[in-house]
Write a structure and sequence with these properties.
Length: 442
């Protein structure tokens, strides 16, 4: 009996050890594989969100964006430890696979990136007693780069709004900023949020590559940026010029860099820093107003204050070449950026995917030729690159422009909601108004 019990106990203890150690190890590796898949899918979707391809109603080829998304998703997934080692990123190894739900010929504003991770050689410990020397774990995650611009065009229900953070307090009228006339084409359909200016990505103002270009850069409307009654109130819209947002909606909640926050007022801090409060488009429960309070300038005018704060934001210190720029060799999405001399993270001339020069600007529902009234409704967002040319200066102030303190900008991304978008908004991340989220459960 003692011998029989000892033999039985050997198998019982072995089975319990296999269950307790090997299965726990297997579940741990499975969780690690899921984290790797999640990270890779989000990174791949982030490429689409930052690239501008979701804003292109003309549906240019997305091959370059998909190739870049594949590379980034694979690199990120391969940096994660699964079962004691990193996954093999080499194509054909089968440990990381990246796929998309859309192709060049079937692409809309919400591309999905799916990353599958797998390890087939996880070693076992006590389970070797039963002849099993290796286990397999797999995981899959799908992330979406959500742009609501095409939602109303493809279904009968209203679009779900987006709510990015770090939005700058510049309320841009809904008119093509690259055109000379305020009666020119709109950016978004005011009702559906569909992109009506279909090829704006990669265009710029002033002097955009259009038939009748806007010779002005970004500057503030009203009397030197003061929209108070004593200064004349709110003036009619002009292309590429903005109304200042009210301080209650654009309060700085994250500090600006110490090098430029000492003498800045709250308006300048909301530019040089990050307003972390999400700003929603569509049916926004929080009223957004044009600032109609008298403006007390630090540098003589709101435009001068804007340029000073923006210069600090984009690291423009000594002159041309300081701030990041847009790579002129990439004229089609995904647009590429080049680090400037004062980039605090990487060395100059390094290719980068994100930049402090990328800012998100809200677009408000306006009718050309008529003064908007408070509150205003945000119907979409433009993501622009400030001072996109490495040889350009801050401020942009050629003869004959409306303000001696203007900024040049290139359009990188667009996201429209229209006036009908409703429901719980999808919160954005980073500088892009195109939200990135996991759409498969972990």
């Amino acid at each position: 009996m003692i011998v029989l019990v000892a033999v039985v106990l050997l198998f019982v203890v072995g089975a319990m050890a296999a269950l307790s150690i090997d299965i726990v190890t297997l579940y741990t590796a499975r969780s690690e594989a899921q984290l790797a898949a999640d990270a890779g899918a989000l990174a791949g979707a982030r490429v689409f969100a930052n690239s501008g391809v979701t804003s292109d109603a003309g549906r240019r080829s997305t091959r370059n964006a998909r190739n870049l998304a594949t590379m980034i998703a694979t690199q990120v997934a391969a940096q994660n430890i699964v079962g004691g080692r990193t996954l093999n990123p080499v194509a054909g190894a089968g440990e990381i696979k990246v796929s998309f739900d859309q192709t060049d010929t079937a692409f809309d504003t919400n591309p999905h990136v799916t990353v599958q991770t797998q390890r087939t050689d996880l070693p076992t410990f006590f389970a070797r007693i039963w002849g099993r020397t290796a286990n397999t774990v797999t995981a899959s995650a799908t992330a979406e780069a959500y742009n609501p611009s095409g939602a109303n065009a493809s279904n009968s229900g209203p679009a779900i709004p987006v709510a990015p953070s770090c939005v700058k307090p510049w309320l841009l009228p809904n008119v093509d900023p690259t055109q000379a006339s305020a009666s020119g084409p709109t950016i978004f359909s005011s009702s559906t949020g569909a992109i009506t200016a279909s090829t704006l990505v990669g265009k710029y103002w002033p002097n955009g590559p259009v038939a009748t270009p806007n010779t002005n850069g970004i500057y503030s409307l009203c009397n030197a940026g003061d929209c108070s009654v004593g200064k004349g109130g709110i003036t009619p819209p002009l292309p590429g010029a903005y109304y200042p947002g009210d301080p209650a909606s654009f309060s700085p909640t994250a500090a600006a860099p110490a090098s430029c926050s000492g003498s800045f007022n709250s308006y300048q801090l909301s530019i040089a820093g990050c307003v972390q409060t999400p700003i929603s488009c569509g049916t926004n429960p929080n009223n957004i107003n044009i600032d109609i309070n008298p403006y007390v300038a630090v540098n003589g005018s709101r435009d001068a204050d804007t340029v000073a704060a923006a210069s600090c934001l984009i690291h423009y210190v000594n002159g041309p070449g300081d701030s990041d720029s847009v790579d002129t060799a990439t004229t089609q999405p995904p647009l590429q950026f080049v680090a400037g001399n004062q980039n605090p993270v990487v060395t100059a001339a390094t290719n980068i995917m994100v930049s402090d020069s990328l800012v998100t600007i809200p677009v408000i529902n306006t009718t050309p030729g008529f003064d908007p009234t408070n509150p205003v409704q945000i119907i979409g967002f433009l993501q622009v690159f400030l001072n996109p040319s490495a040889s350009s200066t801050m401020p942009y102030a050629p003869a004959g422009t409306a303000s001696p303190y203007e900024m040049s900008a290139m359009i990188i991304n667009m996201a429209g909601c229209g006036t009908s978008a409703a429901g719980q908004p999808i919160f954005g991340n980073g500088a892009s108004p195109v939200a990135v989220r996991l759409i498969t459960p972990p």
